[in-house]
Amino acid sequence: MTDLDSRGALGAPAVQWPTVTPVNDELLSPAPDARSGARPGDSSTHGVAPSRARVKAPVPATGAWREGDPAGRRRFADVGTFDLESGARLPDVRVAYETWGTLAPDGSNAVLVLHALTGDSHVSGPAGPGHVTAGWWESLVGPGAPIDTDRWFVVAPNVLGGCQGTTGPASTAPDGRPWGSRFPRVTTRDQVAVEIELARTLGVTSWAFVVGASMGGHRVLEWALLGPEAGVDVVSLAAIATAAQTTGDQIAWAHPQLGAVRADPGFRGGDYYDAADGDGPHVGLGIARQIAHATYRSARELDDRFGRLPQGGEDPFTDGRYAVQSYLDHHGDKLARRFDANSYVVLTESMLTHDLGRDRGGVEAALAQITAHALVVAVDTDRLFLPADCARIAAGIPGAEPLRTLTSDFGHDGFLIEFDQLGPIVADFLGERARVRD
User: Fold this and answer.
1) How many CB atoms lie within 10 A of CB 337?
2) How far apart are CA 59 and CA 156, in angstroms?
3) How far is CA 304 from CA 12, 297, 329, 409, in A?
4) What's the confidence (pLDDT) of residue 32?
5) pLDDT tens-digit map of 338-365
6) Predominant location of this chain (predicted)?
7) Beta strand 153-157 with 89-100: parallel, antiparallel or unpaired?
C-alpha cells in the first residue's frame, strides 16, 4: 500500500490532519493516538483521492472473496439449509468465520463480534493472503486488548449475504453458477439464525459477550432475543452506534445508494460476475459508497478538514474538484475494488427492514424482553445513527448501564476511531458484567 505525501493528492495544500496507519474498511484502526477519518480498506494517509493522472488497474467485476482465493485465517462451517423469512429456502449455507483464543472447558468465555456493513471477520491480525488489510478492531480485540484473546474465545463470522466467504450473491449456487440476481432477500433475523447454527457447530451454548456496531449492532439486539429462544444464552452485550429500528431518515439515505448500484449498466440486474475487469457495476457502487460515507462523517470534520480547498492543481471553476470531492471519489473507488455490488444491495436492504419490535409488540416491548446485561454506546456527532437512537435502546433494556457517549469530530465513524474512549469503556464493562449466570 502506498501512502500519499503530506500535501495530499496532486500536491494539494496540506490539510492539518494527523497521519494514520492503514488497516481495513467500514472499520479502520488508526495508529495509537492518531486521529483519522480513514475506514477499513483505505490506504491513504489523508483519505484524499490519488491523482487523476495516476493510472489504475481496471476495477474487477466484484471484489468478493471467492472459492479458490486464499482462505487466510478464515474457517468454514457448513450449517445446512435455511428457510428464510421471505419464504425462500437457501440450501447449503456456509459460514466463513475467524476465531482467537481458546474456548474454556465450561464454555464460559465465548465472545461474539459482529461486523458492520462493509466489514468482515478479520477483526484482528495482520494483512496477508486472503486479507487485504489488517484487522479492523485490532485495538479492541487481541492479546492484552480490552477484549483480551488470552482470556476470551472470540468468534467473528462473516454475515449472511455478504461477500467474504459466508454464503452470499457471489457464492456458487447448487447449479454451479453464482447466485447473482437469484439470491433471496435476507433479514437481520435470518442472519442471526445462521449465526446461531454456527454457535451450535462450535459447541457454544452461551455467549459471555456479544458486541457490534452499526449494522453489527442490529444483529446484537436480535441475538439478545433469538439466541436464548434457540438455547444459546447471551449474558451481556454491547450495542454501539446503532438502532433498535431503522428510521425514515436512515431509509432515505439508503434509497439513492441502492438506486445508484441498480442504475449502473454494468450491474446487469445482478448478473455481472462474468464481466471483464472495468465492465462491472463499479461506478454505481462507488457512488453509493460516496453517499454513505458522507453520512459516516460529521459536518464539523468535513468543514474543518477540507472546507473549500481545491484538490491540488485542480480548479473547481473549470471542471476541477474540491478536496472533499476527491476524498469521496477515493473512498468510492476503494470500496468498488474490495466489495461486491450485490452484497451491498442485499445487506443494505437487510438494514432497511431491521425492526426489533416487529411481531413483538413494538420496540419498547421487545427491548423490555432482553435479559442480558447491556452496554450501549453512542457517538455525539453521529448523523447516521443518532444518539437518540442509542438512548432509546439504553432506556428500554432493563439490565442496561446508563448510556455512554463518545465525544468525537468523526461522526458515525467515531466507533472506529475513538479507541482511547471506547477501549476503557468496553474493558470496564467486561470486567464488571460478563459473567455466565449461575
Assistant:
1) 19
2) 28
3) 15, 12, 19, 10
4) 29
5) 999 999 999 999 999 999 999 999 999 9
6) cytoplasm
7) antiparallel
Cα torsion 117, 101, 135, 163: sign: negative
Residues with catalytic roles: 214, 382, 412
Q: What's the whole-number mean pLDDT along residues 58-71?
A: 96
Whole-model pTM?
Answer: 0.88
Average pLDDT, the chain: 89
Using only C-alpha atoms, the chain has a radius of gyration, in whole angstroms, of 21
Amino acid code (one letter) for 317: F
Tell me how crowded residue 353 is: count the other CB atoms within 10 A of its CB.
18
The predicted-structure confidence for 5-45, as pLDDT tens digits, reads as follows: 222 222 233 333 332 222 233 333 232 233 444 444 343 33
Q: What is the mean pLDDT of residues 201-226?
A: 98
Cell numbers at 149, concatenated: 484473546
Q: What is the pLDDT of residue 433?
A: 53
- In whole angstroms, what is the distance from residue 335 CA to residue 348 CA? 15
C-alpha cell belonging to residue 41: 480498506
Three-state SS string across 153-210, please? EEEEECCCCCCCCCCCCCCECCCCCECHHHCCCCCHHHHHHHHHHHHHHHCCCEECEE
End-to-end CA distance of the chain: 49
97 touches 65 (CB < 8 A): no
The full 3-state SS of 349-403, as one line of letters, equals HHHHCCECCCCCCCHHHHHHCCCCEEEEEEECCCCCCCHHHHHHHHHHCCCECCC
Q: How many CB atoms lie within 10 A of CB 185?
A: 16
- Residues 75 and 177 sit within 8 Å (Cβ to Cβ): no
Cα–Cα distance, 410 to 380 (Å, whole number): 9
* 289 annotated to a ligand binding site: yes
Question: Which of 427, 415, 392 is CA-nearest to residue 116?
Answer: 415
Strands 141-142 and 147-148: parallel
Q: Does the pLDDT value for residue 73 go beyond 70?
A: yes
Q: How far apart are CA 223 and CA 6, in angstroms?
A: 44
**How many other CB atoms sit within 10 Å of the CB of residue 319?**
7
Query: Which CATH fold would you assign to the domain 75-247+365-433?
Result: Rossmann fold (3.40.50)
